[in-house]
Amino acid sequence: MSTTNNTILTPLKTLSVKFLALVVVLGIAALVMLEAIVHQLQHGLAVTDLASWGTQEGVTWGIYIGTFEWFAGMAVGALAAVGYIRYNELTRYDIIARIGELWALIAGLSAAYLIVIDLGRPDRVLNILTAWFVTVQYSPLAWDVTFVTALLVMTSTMLILSLRRDFSEMNLNKLPVYTALIGELLTLGFRPEEREKLDSMLRWLGLALLILAFTGGMVPGWLLGVVGAQAGWYGGIAGIAFLSAGLLSGVAVLAITAGVLRYLYGMEEALPEEVFVGLGKALTLFGFVYLVVQFNNLLPSIFPMAPLAESQVGEAMLYGHFATDFWLAMAAVAIPMLILVLFRERMLAGGVGLAVVSVVMLWGVWVKSQLTVIEPLMYSSGLPYEVGTYVPTLVEWVITIGAILVAILLFSIATKLVPMGRLLDDTASTEEVRN
Amino acid sequence: MSASDPPDDIDSEAWEAWATEVVDGTGFDVELGVGLARDAQRVARGEMTEAEYQDKYHEAVLDEFGVDDRPTAPEPQKADGSPLPGVPGTGNGKRSRRSMLKTAGAIGLGTLGLSAAQQSTRTVAAQSGDGDSEPDVQMGMAINTDRCIACLQCMDACNEENGNPAESLWMAVLRYQEDDYTDNEEFLTRPCQHCSDAPCETACPTNARYTREEDGIVLTDYDQCTGCRYCEVSCPYGVNYMEWAEPGGGDFEADRDVDGVTAAGSAPQGTMGKCTFCAHRQVSDDESLQGTTACEDVCPVDAIHFGDMNDEESAPRQHLANDTGGQPTYRLLEDKGTDPNIVYVGNEPSRTATQTDGPTGENEFDLVRERHGRREIEIGSHEDDD
Questions:
Q1: Is CATH 3.90.1150.10 the classification given to domain B139-385?
Q2: Which residues of chain A have pLDDT under 70?
Q3: For residue A316, what is the nearest residue in chain B, using CA coordinates?
Q4: Rounded CA gap, B309 and B184, in Å?
Q5: pLDDT digit string, tens, across residues A279-289
Q6: Can you give the CATH number for the domain in which A430 is found?
Q7: Cβ contact A75:B254 at 8 Å
Q8: Is B243 on the interface with A (CB under 8 A)?
Q9: Is A433 touching B (CB cutoff 8 A)?
Q10: pLDDT tens-digit profile of B250-281?
């Protein structure tokens, strides 16, 4: 514990022009998105390219729901990573846990926000809560609301408790005034004797997060997996497929963030190479599992014994209408995975290489999320309907990309408000701070 | 005596003691719980009907729990052999004995007490106002596609009657061909199937989609619907039509109110609409409108027959009994397990049937396929994609 990692406070203590420029750019993006939302509220979902499947030959869920699945998965993956680190008390990965806490919260909120955007009557979103006591018995959407709520509550609790511990070890006077205020608030009534209890709570809450991720974390997948009407969705692997995508994208977003922070703030000591090697190993494993699960999900549908509707969906994905998108998405996961296997040590040196491959993987998972949602609705089965079409409108793109940029904006601001981890520096030990 | 080992004789003192011990642990009314359990056994043995069972304890269950959530209770949501207690959807009086016992068991465990904490206002309203309901009525249709000439008058009449915009085809006539070396064009007249086991109700996160207790019609509470479209996703028939924009259709002149629920006529912007079996006619004071639908009225070849599927004398049952002309009958996508209440007379479209081009009404009527603002639809995309 004698290594100094003072650099974790660098993001808090600096405020560069570049950062302000980033906030301004992202802020403008947020305003443009706001304008698109107002436009959609005024004219209804008619400003999207969504249409009813069937005679209108459209898809009724599009990139809002596809991106929701992506964000929800990212939240689950970040949640699992935080749980694993906290439960096993992997001190070296402490910063990764903090990044994960923030991302799980932000990705969870973004997912919930996209659901509201997708509603025909967003003003009635609370109806889902008032009817919850009845609908939770059968509606997967009510289960999903339950899961996302649990995720937000448990992640916030983890964030607050871990910040309480971290702040208690810091000299608040040396921090910027707003961070110090947050620190004061979160360490209200702190007594040194509670440290042991706090450590224990973080550990067991970590286990709870892990359990939540691997059980309730599958619910957004079941949302599609229990729907018998759409070929390509129904089946026992939907929850697993969602979770495998989530673990990959969750760890990828942590790797990107860690790489960028290290690069921008020179956090070589706080984020040593071993951490990136560990993240790289996790990405390799989760990338491999993701590909195995995706092909397990798809390949049975193209065998001659598969039901007709299933084979139409599978064929469109593997060599039909969606083949280009599908194979690009798979390559975007497979190639970075192979690169990680072959060149790990060399390219991980600074964390930047890992961030780049993570971005590519995240993009691949995003594309496949869209295909998963759109395709069965486009290739409806059962009645003699036509194959649907769907080309997202400008409004849909602006709102979707805006949601991603706003998530980045929120995280950027968070790095200026709360410390990215605990201070393991002897010079700022608890005793000194408290006396 | 072990609580897990009930005596066989439900009238014996030993059974009474065993049941009392079990129910006592739940904190609910012991006498009621023991009575429910004993009579549930009688129902299982066939000594008592489900209806008697329901009636006998309705008041007491209401007193104890505030609501009567059992599948047999007179409310829109009925359990129907679903393994989950309280799951909505099923057709009147078609519950399996097994699911009923499961639900009775759930009451014993006090789960009802949990779910009773909240109920949608619609459900409660329906419950209090249906003392003289006839749960054995199940409205449905017999549609003779062999007679259909694809004149599309039913589609036009439907949109006219309900004030729907041109793109919301609650009734749609699909033209299709089979891949059988004949050029025979066939038609499928497709309204909502008003399923007894409607997946759209199970999907709905706000309880907006429900089955009307009195006649088994599946409706949407327009005041409750959030427009999430999970019902549309879960329906295998593609009968749901979201109102993407402010509906630009005609006016709906009748009352939108069905038993205190806004459920008749076209759906407002942002909510989900679909065929209501002309619910406003079914609740109309004008008796000549009851038991009729706009599509049935206008059909020039008498292909559509609307009425109570449980009544042998009804129009659909009479048609099925006497007028099929030797044609086969079927229910659409029966393997989906939705228990639809439309019975077709004629050939069932196969899964490989492809749609053929033909008038969708724009020449004669104000009907279109494409959603307002989207590009024009071309028939034949299935073939192109191969």
A1: no
A2: 1-5, 425-435
A3: B385
A4: 31
A5: 999 999 999 99
A6: 1.20.1630.10
A7: no
A8: yes
A9: no
A10: 788 889 999 999 999 999 999 999 999 999 99
